[in-house]
DNA sequence: GCAAGGTC
């Protein structure tokens, strides 16, 4: 019997489970190649990609493994990207499709070798068992091998259905083989077809649309792309940017007060914290200043903090970003290296569970023997090194417990447990990034077995004149539990070491010694970073655990998004300017720096759409709106479920996609030159303004027509936050030239002057409910041209849609 | 050259 597995690690596991000779029942995700090298270091190259074993019933099994997909859809009209739509792609071996590029060359070689071997073995096979992951993709992987490599054997093959890799379940599945799940296969093949038909054709259409423009201007080839996952992901970034641009900063006020007792200062906040009117806040201050307050309530609340759950890939990517600022794709690439070095289990997992079959005790013991000296010198530990427990310390603490039971999350995975360390010793020197990530995985694994921590929050209420309520709050850890194991990575912000409130008693009288008004503003949502964008994709269920980070990287590669990092000087100008220093001369209201966390540039920094990214989405919204919303995925999933349940056929579903794309491409072609111009314009804008002007960068619009020596630049009014044009000689030569500017969109200099009044003519562009606009106009509101012709007076009327 | 999906 020929057994087809999806990947080496599973093939090895199945071989162990089925083999009567193997007594080793421990579940291991160690890569097969690694095992083979361990056993026969002299001839790893000549080793075959299959294993022959005798099963318990005397049956011979030849266990083969794939490397994920061995076949991929390909344009049947091959190569000519001007020809589209392509509506009937065919399956071709990936060793042919992937042969270019040195990184994948080795993989191509391996795939080619596997295909040749399976083809040879299948000639004399008594039967075929499809033992790939029991999900849509797994079914397609096995289907293609059985159909194309084994010569049309899918329909006569048997399906082994298992969802965990325990001996028991594997043996059970081989004793109860099922017929192939054709409907699952149909759904999977349809998914490939739909993604190909939409992705390839629209990407070609987009790329083609700018070819004429770029060849006219003798610009080089530029690849554009869009797809079912790329589109919505890019749209998330654009939607967020629009929210930020359209945000209205509404002021509100906080009152902070210090009370004195036994020479100790108690810092408090007025409650409710948010005060919507300044006069109300000032009344509070006037009423409470220098008054006595009484402790009316002391509330101590203990909360348990559960141990962290073991890592799924997404969790690991999130944590590595938080701690080390590793991007998700970088984290995946390091995790893969650790996996190939047999140091951690399979990383492409969505599971947050650790089955007991991995043998907790064995792993904890093995990890305890790992040398962690190098880890202790790790710079990521900073100066916390002294308080950090070694692996062996943690290990003996855990093993002294009666039961070993990890705290698990609710996510599962059809084929793998959560990520855990294997306890193997590294066979080479690890790079810094590998050491960091491995240490994180090890400490997370340990921590998940730890005891619950306990925190205690004390909240003291102080009331002035029986009416005004102030609260002081502090939180501290009273029992560390698992935090001890996760110490270098536990976020201690928000906790104090010693509380300064517990000496207070009910009815204590305190004197107010300081009270101050803080003006704050409602904040727009923060920009996404690579970690939060990935989480958004997880939440919206687009992409897969293994591909999400790659798709974010693609958006960077296409220059659809960029990373905005405000400079330090901009931060101080922009954010500190919001600090309220308004205090009437006679009042003791203090000038106060506002909370750094709330206004730090960190929140502002993040992913922004580029001009070209915005242009792509706005064109797509006009012609193929589905591709930039998650509705295509939703709709497709619903239809594929119908295929899976047999209520519709693959042919119907794929035909529908074909018809939709035919229509879309027709409409696209009719408007091709318009689209091409629009995107080319955005490309141009990207080139000339990189880095793009932002509200914090200095944008010069032209020479000041009033003093003739200064420049008019875009400024932001401190109080109203509105942007306007002002002269650079404002402070030095008291030139008061100003003019109002549109509050939304991007403003650029055109270099032109108004013929009538010689004020600068500027360009403003942006996006209004998905429609791009751009217009040029003289910024002088008193310009004789505007005053004489009322129809240009309204900027919206003079804007031209492009 | 292009999608999204799987993998060493």
UniProtKB/TrEMBL annotation:
Give the Low complexity compositional bias ranges.
40-49
Q: Name one GO molecular function term.
A: DNA binding
Determine if rRNA-binding is one of this entry's keywords. no
Superkingdom, natural source: Archaea
Q: For this chain's UniProt record, which GO biological process terms are given?
A: DNA recombination; DNA repair; DNA topological change
Q: Where is this region: Disordered?
A: 22-49, 406-426
- Could you tell me which residue ranges the Topo IA-type catalytic domain spans? 181-665
UniProt-listed Enzyme Commission number(s)? 5.6.2.1
The Toprim domain covers which part of the protein?
1-164
Question: Where do the TM regions start and end?
Answer: none
Keyword DNA-binding belongs to the record: yes
Question: What catalytic activity does the UniProt entry give for this protein?
Answer: ATP-independent breakage of single-stranded DNA, followed by passage and rejoining
**A single Pfam family, by name?**
Topoisom_bac
What protein family does this chain belong to?
Belongs to the type IA topoisomerase family.
Which NCBIfam families does this entry report, sorted A to Z?
topA_arch (TIGR01057)
Q: What is this protein called?
A: DNA topoisomerase
List the source organism.
Candidatus Nitrosocosmicus arcticus
Q: Which lineage?
A: Archaea, Nitrososphaerota, Nitrososphaeria, Nitrososphaerales, Nitrososphaeraceae
